[in-house]
Amino acid sequence: MYYILKIVADLLIILTTRFRIQGVENIPSQGPVLVVANHLSVSDPVLLGVKLRRKIIFMAKEELFKNWFESYIVRQFGAFPVYRSRTNRDTLRRANLVLQQGYALGMFPEGKRSKEAHLMPALYGSALIAYHNKAPILPVGIIGTEKIKGFNWIWRRPEVTLVVGRVFHLPEEKTVLTKDQLAQYTEIIMKRIEDLLPEKYKVPAKDGGRG
Q1: Alpha-carbon 97 to chain mean position
Q2: pTM
Q3: Domain boundaries, the chain
Q4: CA distance linking residue 42 with residue 145, whole number of Å
Q5: How many CB atoms lie within 10 A of CB 88?
Q6: Which residue in 108, 38, 113, 50 sits closest to 77, CA to CA?
Q7: Virtual CA dihedral for 174, 89, 104, 120, nearest 10 degrees?
Q8: Residue ranges with strand state E in the chain
């Protein structure tokens, strides 16, 4: 069923958007990798899962699993729920297992969609998972999916672009991981994503942007 849905989704992307992808050569063909991207639309996980040529297992908010149809679709694309009511340890264990088994794990470090389409402050989860697994990180910039909303966007066929950066690793530290170091690692990840985006998608200067 996954491959059928993938073919259908790919066809819909071709028909309803003017899609482009840059940096395809940067995508590892196999092995564990943590895929991190900015988040503009509910379509982002499907877009990444279809166009990055890897089956990506996403960490998704629990609300997506409350409706049986949405739950079925996102589970077919390899997503698993993150329950706010449970301990973070449960989520981390599941995420660690994905990488340890050699799969691609997808995360949106901001934790939610950006209503203004620019980068928001990120949570520490992606940095924590990358650090504990020494996982290679693949940054992706998503451009244009904020226009995918309502119904009229289908007729406009908005331009949608994925910009895939080069794989990188977090600096290795021999000391015990501190909150300050975790914040620095998170900043490194977000800077890699930011470097792939046009100016209007970056953090506004008034919000303490990165330059």
Answers
A1: 18
A2: 0.88
A3: 2-207
A4: 9
A5: 13
A6: 50
A7: -80
A8: 18-22, 33-37, 56-61, 80-82, 104-107, 137-143, 159-164
- The backbone torsions φ and ψ at residue 82, rounded to the nearest 5 degrees and listed phi first, read -105, 115
* Paired tokens of 160: 């949608």
CB 53 within 8 A of CB 23: no
The CA distance from 139 to 191, in Å, is 9
Sign of the Cα pseudo-torsion (97, 108, 61, 128, in order): positive
Amino acid occupying residue 13: I
CATH level 2 (architecture), domain 2-207: 3-Layer(aba) Sandwich (3.40)
Each residue of 54-68: pLDDT tens digit?
A: 889 988 766 666 777
Sign of the alpha-carbon dihedral angle for 16, 7, 40, 83 = positive
Give the SS3 label for residue 96: helix
Spatial separation of the C-alpha atoms in residues 211 and 203, rounded to whole Å? 8
Convert the pLDDT of each residue in 175-186 to its tens digit. 788 899 999 999
User: Does an H or E element contain 49, and which?
Assistant: helix 44-51
**Residue 150 CA to its chain's centroid (Å):** 22
Gap between the Cα atoms of 70 and 166, Å rounded: 32
